[in-house]
Amino acid sequence: MLEKISEWDEALFLWLNQHHSDFMDPIMYYSTRTFPWIPLYVFLIFLVWKAYGKQGGWVILGVLLSILFADQITSGLMKPFFERLRPCHEVLLNGMVHNYGNCGGKYGFASSHAANSFAIATSMYLGLSFKYPAVKWLFLWAIFFSYTRIYLGVHYPGDILVGAFVGLISGLAAFHIFRFIYNLIRMKSGINKIKTD
């Protein structure tokens, strides 16, 4: 069964990866980097500040923790454990993969790009949707950001799907951990204030 899923994954990858153009190649390459998205991150920090004021630091810490979870699970645990070659490193696919730019590390399961982007989208959505419901568009950004990895030939769709799932779980976990800590500190501060009054 796993072998069949792997075959489907490879076939879908080849179909998606072969839809490329000289015009889109550099756009997709730079879209998969971090620095073009710095204005987006600054804008999100601004929204957090508008929604929470000084307490927004807790939300930012939650986002950072979600990225740490996502990155460590995918890069630190899954890639060395499963040792699934990236398509651009797969000898059997030589000549069939459109790889623009660097191939990256040897292993690709699961995608850290997908995990990190979905971790950001999830934790930001949980933290901001009460005031800015439209922030759900971050999931479209995460989908596009993840898709660039297939376009560039460095990840299979399965790598992306599992990475996205890891990111969702990481975002949920980090948000609830920091909400619990924040509420605990607030509760203890209130108790201390009552005792000293």
UniProtKB/TrEMBL annotation:
Gene3D superfamilies in alphabetical order: Phosphatidic acid phosphatase type 2/haloperoxidase
TM region positions: 34-52, 58-77, 134-154, 160-185
A Pfam family the protein falls into: PAP2
Keyword terms, alphabetized: Membrane, Transmembrane, Transmembrane helix
Protein name (Swiss-Prot/TrEMBL): Phosphatase PAP2 family protein
Organism of origin: Aquiflexum gelatinilyticum
Residues annotated as domain Phosphatidic acid phosphatase type 2/haloperoxidase: 59-175
Keyword hit for Transmembrane helix: yes
InterPro entries: PAP2/HPO (IPR000326), PAP2/HPO_sf (IPR036938)
